[in-house]
Amino acid sequence: MDVNVLSEKENVKSKGPGEDFILEVKNLKKYFPIKDGILQKTVGHVKAVDGLNLNIKKGETFGIVGESGCGKSTAGRTIIRLNKPTEGKILYKGEDITKASENQLRKSIRKDIQMIFQDPFASLNPRKTLGKTLMEPLEAHQLYKNKKERMDRVKELLDVVGLDPSYFTRYPHEFSGGQRQRIGIARALALNPELIIADEAVSALDVSIQSQIINLMKDLQEKFNLTYIFISHDLSVVRHISDRVAVMYLGNLMELADKDSLYSEPLHPYSKALLSAVPVPKKKGEEQRERIVLEGDIPNPANPPKGCVFHTRCPVAMDVCKEVVPTFKEEKPNHYVACHLYN
Amino acid sequence: MTLPEKDISKNQTITSPDINLEVKQKPESLWRIAFDKFMKNKLAVSGAVVLIIIIGMAIFAPLIAPHSPEEQVLTNRLAPPSAEHPLGTDELGRDTFSRLLYGARVSLTVGFVAVAGIISIGTIVGAVAGYFGGIIDSILMRVVDVIIAFPQIFLLITLIAVLEPSLGTLIVVFALFSWTGTARLVRGEFLTLRTREFVLAARTIGIRKGKIIFSHILPNAIGPIIVTATLQIGYVILAESTLSYLGLGVQPPTPSWGNMLQAAQDFSIMLYAWWYPLFPGLMILITILSFNFVGDGLRDALDPKRKN
Ligand SMILES: Nc1ncnc2c1ncn2[C@@H]1O[C@H](COP(=O)(O)OP(=O)(O)OP(=O)(O)O)[C@@H](O)[C@H]1O
Ligand SMILES: [Mg+2]
């Protein structure tokens, strides 16, 4: 008996590779062609995502942070197959969805993975009532027997996200930003997904509304056993909701760790700089950080620097950084970093 | 009497802002808002009124016309306006007013039917090109370029000279060669709309392409399409008049505004019977102006970016 309990605990703790990951992303690349001239010849590529590796555990909230333009949205959209991946692999529950056709996707991730979008004003069809917007996913997958049951489900969804079911016949322009974001969440929940990718889900909202939405998302996670990939440039929001956090720069991960160890002892110079720039509420054990100001702009993703992509702005860059791409390795338990300082 | 009193007693505690909220409960659709905006534009409303009158006159021409449009009274040629012939008569003694009414039928039919064809072809081509992009888009847009590269009016003249000039030929030729502008417009709308987040959301939910195109994107592009349709009707009516004026359009004795104007192109007629060319010319002018006013009004009303 004791042995059983122990082994179960063991399982929960150290998740075997491949088995308990709901999503695995391997060396994912997404390049956008740059076209020019009358013949629209491809003259180069924007390397928006350039060799991303992620393993998402079931039930966790995985935060992705990084400056604007570093490829966070592209990563999210490619994972959910709104973009065609250029290279790499995406495995959902072990099933390779990298090259799946739209018909195949409809049977798998179009139900199981959903997205919450940044702009609550652009993410709802202005010509559809709230009811229509929420009925649609149920109709598309022919869930429930008839219209009445689908309507009941929609009312239930509205209730779950804290909206009045009598709003059924209203149009998006009659709602506030926060209410719209709740509608977006209700839509994402409609198909009972397992994984939700939230791309800057609260960035467009007032601070007071932000915390309401974050709390709603946390409640829903508990209630429906959801896994989140939470993408944001806002470090404090990410800290609030995430279990693990990845720091992204120029299409790649610089560092990945449990939230607490990342925020209390960031290893990568880029993470250090990012964290020093925001007033993060200090927890005990965290030393006062000095503000590190990064020089220069993010390099053009069409022409990323050789070696470590961060070396052009790194305050502690060495010669090796200009030549050799650092490997992503586990510097401390569950704390990964791609930096030559840790060799 | 008793009902409002009851209501007041019930809602006594509700303050006035809340009552306003209650009133707003009725969903205000975007069409309603657009309609209200349109009604504020005086020029557009008068254009619409004029068009309704002209369309009404065309539909009810047999009831309104004092004479048959083909009835000739050779003893009463080029008569000035009178009680019997309110707009005078033509060179064969036919009643100009009656002929204008029947001519309106021809001109408006050509306008509406040809534009229906133009909009259908243009919308489908533009939607497919804009939504799918890539190679499909390139091919379709090169076809558009080729059609645009032909000088339109010469193409029309040549085609109609080769084919039998008739109402049907006119409509088909207009529809086949004038959809390019609409296709470009719709393509542009689709290019921007397909990356909008609500379309991405529809895709992540697993809604099929056809439904995304027709039920999500198209309704959001309908504003510019309606506007261009309105303006195109004016253009087609003008083109029909031009072709009829050149003798390539609707053939006499069927009256059209264009061929009436053509029949009046004689120096002595213009000098001694000014009413004969004046009225068909005026009808063309008024109709096209009205379509343009309505089109501009619709553009402002349907554009969500232009508030009030
Ligand atoms: N459809 C596209 N075509 C071409 N380039 C694109 C496309 N989408 C994104 N990019 C480019 O890819 C890079 C990454 O963009 P992305 O939107 O993923 O960044 P992000 O981290 O989400 O930024 P933000 O915080 O501003 O949302 C940018 O340089 C952007 O210009
Ligand atoms: Mg983004």
Question: What keywords describe this structure?
Answer:
heterodimer; A: 343 residues; alpha/beta; eight-stranded mixed beta sheet; four-stranded antiparallel beta sheet; 12 helices; disordered N terminus; B: 308 residues; mainly alpha; 15 helices; 73% helix; 0% strand; binds adenosine-5'-triphosphate; binds magnesium ion
Note down, in words, how this protein is organized.
The complex is a heterodimer of chains A (343) and B (308). With 343 residues, chain A is an alpha/beta fold. Chain A has 12 helices and 12 strands. In chain A, strands 6-7-8-3-9-10-12-11 form an 8-stranded mixed β-sheet, with helices on both faces. The longest helix of chain A has 18 residues, at 207-224. Chain A is globular, with a radius of gyration of 21 Å. The model of chain A is unreliable at 1-18 (pLDDT under 50). By secondary structure, chain B is mainly α. Mean pLDDT of chain B is 82; it is low at 1-25. Chain B has helices spanning 2-10, 16-23, 30-40, 42-59, 61-64, 96-132, 134-149, 152-162, 167-177, 180-193, 197-205, 209-245, 257-263, 267-272, 275-302. The two termini of chain B are 38 Å apart. Helices cover 73% and strands 0% of the residues of chain B. At the A-B interface, α3, β6 and α5 of A face α11 and α12 of B. Adenosine-5'-triphosphate (ATP) is lined by residues 32, 46, 48, 66, 68-74, 233, 301 of chain A.
Largest β sheet strand count, sense and barrel closure of chain B:
none
For the residues shown, what is the average pLDDT of chain A? 88
Q: Give the DSSP E fraction of chain A (strand runs of 2 or more residues).
A: 15-25%
Task: Identify low-pLDDT runs of chain A.
Answer: 1-18
Estimated helix fraction of chain B = over 70%
Task: Please estimate the helix content of chain A.
Answer: 25-40%
Oligomer: heterodimer
